[in-house]
Each structure stands twice: as structure tokens, then as C-alpha cells.
Batch of 2 targets.
Target 1
Amino acid sequence: MEAVIKTESLTKIFSQKTIAVNDLYMDVPKNSIYGFLGPNGSGKTTTIKLLLGLLKPSAGSVYVFGNPMGMDSANMRRKIGYLPTNPIFPDKMTPITYLDFIGKIFGIPKAIRIPRIAELIRSVDLLPLSSSEIRKFSTGEITRVGIAACLINNPELLIMDEPTLGLDPIGRSSTAKLITELGSREEKTIFVSSHILTDIDRFCTHIGIINNGKLVFNGTIPDVKKLIRTNTVELHVEGDAAAYVRKVKAVPHVVDVNYFRHVIRISIDGPQNYTGALLRIFKELSEADLELISFNSGSENLEEAFLNLLEEEKSYGFLRAISKKA
Amino acid sequence: MDFYGQFQKKLRACKSYLDKNVFLTLCYHEIRVTFGSLLQKAWIITVLFFALLFVTGERNLAAISILLVFFVFFGSIIALVVSSSSISGEIGGIADSLLSKSVKRWEYLLSKFVSHIIVVLTVYFSILVVMIGILWNFKFLPDDLNYENLFFIVLLVGLGLVFFSSIGVLFSSVFSKTIFSLLASITVWFLFVFMFATTEWEFLYSPVEILHNFALILEGLWDVDYWKILLFYIGSPFVFFAVSLIFFYQRDL
């Protein structure tokens, strides 16, 4: 699949002291929703600024839409929409005047710009505030203006830096829905950076995990979950499960069954037997006199995957100097 | 199509071009922001007040010379202060936002220079020309006044203000913190204005020199090469812009 963003050996060192981005090899496929995950201070925002040409790489290169990105790549940035963390707007501007200003910057003709502004303001639910000064807005309202501004040029690539930061659950849900819609219906490529794992899990198709400036994982969400699959399944049941537990213990490849307070935790001996054993376990459940309330498998836990990957990367020690690509 | 129709068509095309032009959009925005700033508004009100005071007080040519002194001493400081935060004050915020869109660095930088020069000249010329107009209308000016030389003095002081405004933008593009660009700008003011105003030293390219030789210039008796002064004041903003470009293109945002 063609990559919209591609970095090769991308490195950024500030003042010869701080290595913010370290030999980054990253591919963002077209029409994907790429989650860029990392703890605070790991280099996410620096990477984004390198992608946009706001920073000059100390080494390596950035390709966006197949072309190298530089400080004056204004034509390429015409196809990009960027939402920074905590966007800052000029004083005394309203959503309408600001969007009009940005529209002119993008060279959008007036006949297209004005209806687009009206449509965007309505879409982000800022109609009642369209003539109020942005400096008086709440965090959520400011983010909505930022979202409208990053969509005004109908970009092919959206880069969003922590788009749900500071939002309430309704705001986060709306943003997640918007990102999913843009990715699936509008077929845009979306690059979202976040340290909130549940958000990434919710709407991303691909993921890159960065730690201390180094990309420790680059692939799809299922791939990363496979990495930490603990081969366990947890069943929350209602009813007397003693008989069922005895039957599950007899299922081939089940190594351990633990039953405590309506939760049955079943361990399977290896990933190669996971699917087969799971089928038998659920078959037994369907014949038992139990009600299944919920179930979890270890492979759904992205937070564990993330932490395990960071630990694993650290444990490589000096070998990290050899391995180039995640 | 008749002439009017063709004219309309060309006007629409022109408007459409101006509407989408990045550089002009940035300039217009910056001019609006600068005129909207509290400091600029306070300065305009102050200078208008003093201009009226001088005109009603002196009611002769001295009113113009006092107003020119006022612009050289205070106008230059205000031009420096307003322009020294023009870029450094936006780094990490609005500058990032603009430069992450279809704006080239040189367009952003040039719009800062041009807009601050326009603002400073608009305030300066509009007040001075109106004051001279009032004095002329009420016949407070001498009959034998050489208006050509008078407007030449006005032009030189105006170019001096352009010099200070440009240097403020230059330092703003070089230093990441506004406080440093402000300190550097004030140091320049101190060396170019204060030093030569308070000592016996002379420096051809200081605006104070124009004030000291006001009468001589008016009579056409100032024995200097005017082209050198004009070259200095007109060439400086171009040099400052070139230097700013070099620094700004190395800069991380």
C-alpha cells in the first residue's frame, strides 16, 4: 500500500543536547487512521513538526505524498490539515473571521470559501458562537474551531496532535466519531498522536509507538495486540460454575482454570492452540446452566501491549543500536 | 463587451486574485492586528493630542519641528517596541499555525516587515500632513517657506521611523524571546538617538542629525550628500530583511 507519510532515518537533536527523535522509520499507509502513541516527552509533537516542515531534521528525511517535505513546501501543505495541541488563535477573531482568514491563506476562492465556512461552523456546533471572540471560548470550543480550521481546505491528510486533550467525554466521543467518519467515509489519511490508549484503540487502524524518540512498533492494531496475547480468557458468569470449571479443565490445551467471585480465568498453553481451545470452552459454556455476563481476552488490552513493548524495547539494551526498523 | 463590462471583468479578476493572495492576506491581517493593539491605539491618541497642542500652541513652523522631534524620540521607540514582538511573540503559537499551512517562511517574514512599515508610515504621514495642512490653511506658515525642502525633512524622518521599525522586526526574527529582541532594539535606539541627542557627537545617519540641521535643510544649505542618507535609510530595511531571512530559515519553530 502506498505510503502518504514516509520517514527514513529521521533524527532531531536540539542544541546538540537533546535527542528528541531518534532514527525514525515510519510508514503511514493511504486511507489509514494512524495512531501515534507514546508517553509524554517521547517525541510525538517533535515528529509532527518535522512532518510539517516546521523543524529541520538533524538527519534523515521526510516524504509526504511521495515528495520531500521542507520549510517552504507550501503546495504540499495545501493538502494537509493540522490540528495542534491547544491551538492558539489571533486575538479578537471570531470563528467566522478566523476561518475566512485561513481560507484565504489556502487560496480558496470566495465562492467556495463562504459556504464551506458556514457548513463547518454548523458541523462543529459553533453556530451560536460564530460571532463571539475565540479568546473567550472554553477548551472544547477552541478545539472545535481548530477542527473546523484543519478541515477548511478539505485536506487529503489530517495531522492531529492530541485532539481529545482537555475534552469532556462527550467532546472526546464526538471527536472520535469525526475521526472515524473522516477515515472511512471521506477516505482521508489521518495521523493522530495521543497518549490516551483508549482513544487510539477506539478509532485507529494502524499504530506507531514511540518511546524516547525511537519507534518501537509500527504496524496494525491487531498486530500489536497479537504481541501481548497472553492466551487467557476471562469469563464473567452468573450461576453455579463449579461443574463448568471441571469440564473446562478437561479441555485439551487448557493449562489453568481459576474461579473467583463469578470470574473464570482460563489459561491456554500457546497461541497456536488458542482458537481451538476457545471454541471448546464456549461450546461447553453453551451446554452449561450459566449466564455469560461478559468476557475479555488478554489480546484486547492495548494498555498492556503498550507497556510490554516499552519494557521489551528497554530490555534489548545495546542491541537497540543495531536494529534499525521497528 | 463594452468598456464598462471589460472594466468590471478585470476588477473582478483583480479582486479574486487579491482575495486569494497569501502575502496580501498576511499583510492585511498584520496591519489590522497592529492597529488594533492597545499600545498602537494609545500612541495614536497621544501623538494626535500633542500634535494639536503644538499646532494650537505654536501656530508657526516651530510646531512642525517640535512634532518631528516628538516622532524621532518617541515615535521611534514605539515603532521598535511594537515591531520587536512581531515574530518572537508568535513563535510556538500563531506562527506555527500559519507556517503549518500553505505559507512560505519568506512570505510570513516579508509580510511582517511590510505591514509594520505601512503602519508606522500611515500614522506618521497622516498626522504630519494634516498638521501641515492646518497650519498652511490658517496661514501660520511663512510665505517664503520652501515646501519642497520641508517635505524632504518630513520624508527623511519618516524613513528614520522605517529604519527603526525594520530593525525591530529583524531582532524579533533573530531572538526567540521578545525580551531579548526588545533589549536589542532599545540598545539601537540608545545608540542612534539618545547618544547623539545628549552629546556633542555627530553621526550623519542618526535622525537627530536631521533635527539639529532642520533650519539648514529648510534653506537648502546643509552641506551633505543627501543620496548617502537616502541610500542608508532606504537600503537598511532590505538589508535587515535579507539578514532576517538567513536567521529565520535556520530557525526551528
Note: Residues 31 and 119 of chain B are 6 Å apart (CA to CA).
Target 2
Amino acid sequence: MSTLPEQGEFYSRDRRWHPAAMSQDYKTSVTRAPQYPLISLENTASEITGPVFGHNDIAATDNDLLTNFAQPGESPIGERIILHGRVLDENARPVPNTLVEIWQANASGRYRHKKDTYLGALDPNFGGCGRTLTDEHGCYHFRTVKPGAYPWRNRVNDWRPAHIHVSVVGTGFAQRLITQLYFEGDPLIARCPIVNTIPDPAAVEMLIARLDMNATIPLDTMAYRFDIVLRGRRSTLFENRLEGN
Amino acid sequence: MLQQPHYLKETPSQTAGPYVHIGLAPGAAGFEIFDQELGRDIAGPNAKGERIRVEGMVTDGTGSPVKDALLEIWQANADGIYAHPEHAGAVEDGFRGWGRVITDFGTGEWGFDSVKPGPVMGRNGNIMAPHINMWIVARGINTGLNTRIYFEDEDEANAADPVLGIIEWERRRQTLIAKPSIRNGQTIYRFDIRLQGQDETVFFDI
């Protein structure tokens, strides 16, 4: 049985902090956003539990996008960066051993995906995805290249700021999160209809990775820091039995 | 002096976008990179219980198929146990109860193979009818959508289910009920997901 401290439900998600389902400026959301209110559900075992992963599920090199698709001895083109940070919960406790997955365009803004037809060139040495498990302190790191901006069909002259997609599984199905990180100083961030689905500028700030000179490798690789916060859980100060008996 | 409680804010969600497959199912994006992709085998070879297949389509507010969605599923085994250290009981060796499913780029159809989950103990000792939890992400979905798949042939358990019971409208409750049929001797459940419009699927804030 578990050695985890006994904990209760996840804190309710602050839906005004997250993007609204529908945004007129992000056109695809208009026909894909539910119209009815979500039905609020108190957590049960179905929401508090979630899949558990181990080091047998992934390879140790899966977090190195500079090498995980490159020919031997070759490297992808682009700014070499380390992307690192911690996964914490809303109580500021680390979330250890959780699966973090990323995907991104290459340095010319092109995705290795059969549906992407952008003019930017594919890089034969870059796949564009990686995955890792956080360590006991909730820390994770990847090595990759900085992605390029690219145009997309929304308004005729919309360009996505350089971004990396980040998926975190968490410890319970209710913690599941997918988001995107942006890079400090990019003037496209403020113009992006997808960024602007988030109503609060303080929430957008949480998505901006910061240049981290202390983590760079001199003469080799720059570094950006991106911390991720998942939903926290109540302490069971008074018994609120989820499973009865 | 008052002490204010200090909590961090959750990282806000952003859409998974049209190329979610690169990160979570790269084989579907068109290239092989990892030794094993996660979430392909939900129940494993040793799971007890009835082998089932669940199929459906995700449609948008115009009634058109959504061809770039990714679905994650999370379910208990046939004994109603989740493969998680906080859930009492053991599951079969190789049973994870978690999977990733993508909608077909051409047709928008999706499907997965698993075992039918058992009833799960819910809050305050109320038993939940067999169900599969689902999370849906795609381009145009800003925050992943949570829903549940229930089974039409569990009508007695469904009638007593505390989660279905909080949905006020019988017509909306029906959007969570998968309909069985038999194909080549195997039970296939149909579960169509409507993001918007007539008979919009019930989505939960969990």
C-alpha cells in the first residue's frame, strides 16, 4: 500500500485563470467549445488516481532532442538550449516521478508532422519531441534547439511566437495538463490569439520561460527555466471519506 | 497580524494544437523515434473480465468530424481497482488502465480495445457504475475536456450511479451512455462525442 501522506481532493480548478473555452480571435475554438456549463464533480477515486510511469517506460536519452533523432555525429540546426525547471503543486510541494513530454517546431518553424506543409525546411536531424520523468525534487530537464516562429491560418497574418508544447501527467487524472511555453522577450507573445485566450496577464507570465544564465553551459548551450504548477490537494484535517466504510 | 494563506497558482492551459501527435503519438505524426510509445496497450494480456472495444467520433458544432483530436482514457480493472498506489487492491500484472487514442486523420473515427471495468467505490460508500474516464484535447480546445463513458447494458447500475444522478437532464445523461453491438463475436460500444450543438456531450469540471 501507499506510503504517501493521506490526502484528499484536488483544489478546484480556477476556471477564470485558465482560457475560456471560446475565443472569437482563436477561430477554431468557436466551433469546438462546449456551450453548456461543465458539470461540477466532487473528486472520487476516478479523478484522484492516475497512471504511474517508471524508468522502464522511457529511455534515458528521450529527453535529449539534440541527439534523439539526429544521425550519429550530426546535430540539428538552431540555437542549442537547455530547458529545465521543477514541477510543483499549488502547495509548492514538488511532484516527483511524473511524466513530462514536450514537442515543438524546429528552428525554421516547421513541425515533423505529415499535416504540416509550411515552407520552412524540415531538419533531417531533428524529430521535435522528448519525454522524461521528474526526479525526487520535481526537477526535469531537456536539451533541444530554440523553435522558430511560424505563420498559421487564423487571421491572414497571424504568427505563433516561438513555443514548446508541454504535457504533464501528474499524480491524478484531475491534474492532467497540456500547455505551451514561450520565450522571454518575444514581441509575438502579446499579439498571439492563442496566448490571449488567457484573460489574466499574470497567468500569461507563468508561461514565459526565463533566460537562466546560471544554467547555461559556457561556449556550448544557453538555458531557459520553466517551472510548472499542477493542482494541489487538500490535507485531510477532518475525515472526509472518499471510499466510505 | 494576519497571516495570509499562500498558494501557487496552477499553470494555465493552452491548446494541444494540431500537432499533438508529435509529442504524444509520434508514430501517427509520421515518424518513429521512441522504443515504445505510451498508452497503446490499456489492459495488457493478463487482465480478467470481458474484452471490449469502444469506438466513436468527435464532432464539432457544425456536425463535422474532428480529425486531429487525442483522447486519453483512464479506467479501473474488472474488479473496480485502479492501477495506482492510493487505490486499495492489486491489479493484474501488465494492467495499467490508461491509454492514448487518436482520431483518424481521414475519417475522424477512433477506437480502442480494453476490458470492461467493474463498479468502483465512490464517495460516502456509493458505488459508481462501470465507467471509463476520458480526457479530450485538440486544436481549438483551450483546456482539455473531461467526460465519462458508461455502458448501456449496465442500466441498473447506471440508474444508481451518483455521478449520472447529478445530471439533471435525462437527455443530457444519455450522451454518456455507450451503446453495445456485436461484430464478429466481439462487443463493440459506440460512444460519439459532440463538442457543441444538438446533444452536446456532458463534460465535467473535475
Note: The longest strand of chain B covers residues 51-59.
